Amino acid sequence: MLLFFGSLALGIFISLLDPFLNLWDEQYHALVAKNLIKNPFKPILINETLFAYENSWTDCNIWLHKQPLFLWQMALSLKIFGLNEFAVRFPSVLMHALLVFFIYDIGKITITKNVGYYSALFFTCSYFCLEYLTGFYATDHNDIAFLFYSFLSIWALVRYFYTEKKYFIILVGLFAGLAILNKWLTGLIVYALWFIVIIYLYKSKFNFKEIINFFISLTICVIIFLPWQIYSINNFTEEYALSMQFNNRHITEALEGHGSNIFFYYNALYEQFGEGFFIPPLIIVAFLFMLYKLENKVHKVIILLTVIILYIFFTIVKTKMYGYLMLVIPFFIIAIAYCFNSLVEKIIIYFKNKKIVLQIQLLLIFTIIFFLFNSNKIYKHHSNKEYGRHVARVMEKKEKDFYLNLKRNYGEKKCAIFNLNFTLNGHVTGIFYTGYSCYSFVPTLIQIKIIKNVGYKIIIIDDGKLPKFIQEDRSLDKISL
Question: Is pTM beyond 0.90 here?
Answer without folding.
Answer: yes
